[in-house]
Amino acid sequence: MKTATVRDLRNGFARISKWIEEGEPVEITKGGKRFARLVPAEPHRPGRFRMPDIEARLNRTFGETCYDAEEVAGGIAASRGDLS
User: Fold this and answer.
1) Region for residue 6 given its phi and psi (left: phi exceeds 0; alpha: psi -120 to 50; beta: otherwise)
2) For residue 2, which of 26, 33, 34 has the smallest C-alpha distance?
3) Whole-prediction pTM value?
4) Domains of the chain from N-terminus onward
């Protein structure tokens, strides 16, 4: 494990970040004492996208009630006052 001071980190970050990119953990010291450790991040693996179950969501929201086109047209006409 490599070691760097806070001053090294501030003035030579490019060099230290290269160590980390190469997989080397770096111990940071301040006043001669260890106080932090920088380690390479785990590679990000995107999760698998799952399509939502839209039909189940609609059923939870509106129940099993389903209207056909004639019933919808009749409801619209009734709301407008066109009861013909």
Assistant:
1) alpha
2) 26
3) 0.51
4) 2-38 (3.40.1620), 52-84 (no CATH)
